[in-house]
Write a structure and sequence with these properties.
By secondary structure, the protein is α/β, with parallel strands linked by helices. The chain is built from 11 helices and 13 strands. The chain binds nicotinamide-adenine-dinucleotide (NAD). Nicotinamide-adenine-dinucleotide (NAD) binds next to helix 1, helix 5, strand 5 and strand 7. Residues 7, 9-13, 30-36, 58-60, 81-85, 100, 104, 123, 125, 178, 180-181, 200 line the site of nicotinamide-adenine-dinucleotide.
C-alpha cells in the first residue's frame, strides 16, 4: 500500500509517517513547509532508517495537485493532514483558512479519485462540536455552533468528503476528530515545532521552560470551570499517529460497515490549563513562570471525548499517560536546545 501523507513535515503527519513505515507501508509526503521545516525528514530518517520523498507543493493549487498524482500514479490511500490550524488566526484571516483548507481537500479528492485512489483519512478536530453543553462528546453529539473559521473548515471538509463518497461508490473515507494532541516521539528526536509564537499550550509551556519565552500566557481565567481555565482532552501524538494505521487497516476491509465513518480520538479525561501546568512541573521538576491574559477568540470552555467507538471499531486505545506526554515534550525541547 502506497500512502500519500499530506502535511508530512508537520507535527502529527511526521509522527504518523514513522508509524506507517514501522508497519511496512510505503509513504510519499506532500508539504510546502508553510508551517514546518525540511529537516523533519532527516529526523524521520534518523528514527526509522528510511528516506521519505516529499513533494514541495501547495495542495490548494489545482495544477500542483494534478502534477502530484501524475508523478505518483500508484497511490492507494491518502491521509490528509495538510491544513492551517491556528484557531485565533483563522478568526482574523478567514479567507486564507477557507482557501487553503477547503481547496486542498477538494483538489485531493478530485485528482486522487481520477488517479484511482480508493481511500482518504481526514484530519478533523473536536472544534466541529463547537461549545458543547454535554460532556463527554461522542460522535453523535451535534456538530455546529462553531467558534472559528478554522473549525468550519473541518466541518466542511467532513461534509465534502461525505458527499464525494456518496457520489463515488468505489471510494471510502474516515474522519478522525482529534482532541488535543501533545507530547513528542519517545526518542526525543521528533516533536512539535511551531514556527513563531506557539498557538498550542504545550509548546508554549516547553519554550517558556527552556527560556525562549519570558512568560507563559494563560488565556482566560474566568471560564465557568473549577479553576477558571479551559478544559481539554490531551492525548499523546504517538497514540494519535497509531490511530491512523488502525484507520487504514480498517478502511481496507471489504466489510467496513459504512463507507464514511467518524471517530473521536481522545483519552476521555478533561484537564484544565492550570492542571496541565502542574503536570508539566511535576513530570519535569521545572517551575513555570505564567500569567493570565484575556480570553482568546475562538476558544471554547470545556471539551473532552467519549472515544468508545474508536476502541470498539478501530481497536484503538490511547496508551500514554499525561506524565509521559509532558516528559516527552520536554525531552524534545531539550533536544532542540542542544542542537542550537
Ligand atoms: N495539532 C492539533 O492540536 C490538532 C488538533 C485537531 C486537528 N488537527 C489537524 O491535524 C492536522 C495536522 O495538524 P498538525 O498539528 O500536524 O499541524 P502542522 O501545521 O504541524 O502540520 C500541517 C502541515 O501541512 C502543511 N500544509 C498546510 N497547508 C498546505 C498546503 N496547502 N499545501 C502543502 N502543505 C500544506 C504545513 O506546512 C504543515 O507542515 C491539521 O489538519 C489540523 O487541523 C490538529
Amino acid at each position: 500500500m502506497k500512502v500519500l501523507v499530506t502535511g508530512g513535515a508537520g507535527y502529527i503527519g511526521s509522527h504518523t509517517i514513522c508509524e506507517l513505515l514501522d508497519h511496512g507501508m510505503e509513504v510519499v509526503s506532500a508539504d510546502n513547509f508553510q508551517n514546518a521545516v525540511p529537516e523533519t525528514f532527516e529526523r524521520i530518517e534518523a528514527i526509522t532508517g528510511q528516506k521519505v520523498v516529499n513533494e514541495n507543493l501547495d495542495l490548494s493549487e489545482v495544477k500542483a495537485c494534478q502534477i502530484l498524482f501524475e508523478q505518483h500514479p500508484d497511490i492507494t490511500a491518502i491521509i490528509h493532514f495538510a491544513a492551517r490550524k491556528a484557531v485565533g488566526e483563522s478568526v482574523e484571516k478567514p479567507l486564507v483558512y477557507y482557501r487553503n483548507n477547503l481547496n486542498s481537500t477538494i483538489n485531493l479528492l478530485h485528482f486522487g479519485t481520477l488517479a484511482g485512489v480508493k481511500h482518504l483519512v481526514f484530519s478533523s478536530s473536536c472544534t466541529v462540536y463547537g461549545n458543547p453543553g454535554n460532556q463527554p462528546v461522542d460522535e453523535d453529539s451535534p456538530v455546529g455552533n462553531i467558534e472559528s473559521p478554522y473549525g468550519y473548515t473541518k466541518m466542511m471538509g467532513e461534509q465534502i468528503l461525505r458527499d464525494h463518497i456518496h457520489s463515488h461508490p468505489s471510494f471510502s473515507g474516515i474522519s478522525l476528530r482529534y482532541f488535543n494532541p501533545v507530547g513528542a516521539h519517545p526518542s526525543g528526536k521528533l516533536g512539535e515545532l511551531p514556527l513563531g509564537k506557539p498557538n498550542n499550550l504545550v509548546p508554549f509551556i516547553t519554550e517558556t521552560a527552556i527560556g525562549l519565552r519570558p512568560c507563559l500566557e494563560v488565556f482566560g481565567a474566568d471560564y465557568d470551570t473549577p479553576d477558571g481555565t479551559p478544559i481539554r482532552d490531551y492525548v499523546h501524538v504517538v497514540d494519535i499517529a497509531k490511530a491512523h494505521v488502525q484507520a487504514l487497516l480498517h478502511i481496507q476491509q471489504s466489510d467496513q460497515r459504512e463507507r464514511f465513518e467518524v471517530f473521536n480520538l481522545g483519552t476521555g479525561k478533561g484537564m484544565s490549563v492550570l492542571e496541565i501546568i502542574q503536570a508539566f512541573e511535576q513530570a519535569t521538576g521545572v517551575a513555570l513562570n505564567y500569567r493570565f491574559s484575556p480570553r482568546r477568540a475562538g476558544d471554547v470552555e470545556t471539551i473532552y471525548a467519549n472515544a468508545d467507538k474508536a476502541a470498539q471499531v478501530l481497536k484503538w486505545q490511547p496508551e500514554y499517560s499525561l506524565e509521559t506526554m509532558m516528559a516527552s515534550a520536554w525531552k524534545w525541547q531539550q533536544h532542540l536546545a542542544n542542537q542550537r
